[in-house]
Amino acid sequence: MEKKKADVLVVTPHPDDAEFGVAGTVAKWTRQGKVVIYVVCTNGDKGTDDYNIKPEQLARIREKEQLDATHLLGVKEVVFLRHPDQSLEDTPGFRKEIVRLIRIYRPEIVVTSDPYRRYIWHRDHRIVGQVVLDAVFPYSRDIWAYPELLNEGFNPHKVKEVWLWASEDVNFRSDITETFDLKLKALQCHESQIKEPFASEMEKWLCERAKDMAEGEKFKLAEGFHRAEIWW
Q1: Which residue of 27, 48, 120, 163 has the fewest C-beta atoms within 10 A of its own C-beta?
Q2: 161-175, pLDDT tens digit by residue?
Q3: Which residues 6+ apart lie within 8 Å of 114 measured at CB?
């Protein structure tokens, strides 16, 4: 079985979530020559307030928007799992999908949404974050977790780090001063989601948030993460 080595695997609940959470850092990584792969778990077919757009049409639109955004960021490949929006559950089957992808791409870093954000948080974000953390440890590592994957040629893999965006427990700030403009351009690709009045205020809001996240650092703009290194 051919192994597709990646440096970073970004697992995002919906199209556009990763652009809000990690796009500046992704752009920095790809500029450094790192191979970044996206996994988009849902098709985003519920993400509209327009009665004239049907779910299947919206899913096609959002997939194209995601491809346009990742092209700007230098992402090597996008894997679309195409689960319906708002339908994700923490199941062995979904976990196995993520384990398989980790074993295929064998990344050093996995990035996803923080499942432990309190109170108001999209259920898909919580589910994806939890499933990804479990997939990273221990399921991707252990030989007899999903033994059928061994028969498919997907051997165990130890991820070195997990980065969680939208965390309430930020312990690492990534300098995106030089790539903030690309983060904005990537977000602007998601035209079905970035609408007025938010569109007019987005740049200002994101810039202020990035400045606040960089407070006390030697750089001006940052994305914040809870970063965990895996030693075992």
Answers
A1: 120
A2: 999 999 999 999 999
A3: 129, 164, 165, 166, 167, 168, 169, 226
| DSSP letter assigned to residue 202 | H
Tokens of 178: 């030089």
- What is the per-residue pLDDT for 83? 98
Q: pLDDT for 79-118, tens place per residue?
A: 999 999 999 999 999 999 999 999 999 999 999 999 999 9
Using alpha carbons, select from 85, 90, 76 the residue that is nearest to residue 132. Answer: 90
Owner of token pair 């192994």: 3
User: Could you give all domains of the chain from N- to C-terminal order, each with its CATH number?
Assistant: 8-229 (3.40.50.10320)
CA-to-CA distance for 45 and 88, rounded, in angstroms? 13
Q: Print the SS3 string covering 109-166.
A: EEEEECCCCCCCCCHHHHHHHHHHHHHHHHHCCCCCCCCHHHHCCCCCCCCCEEEEEC
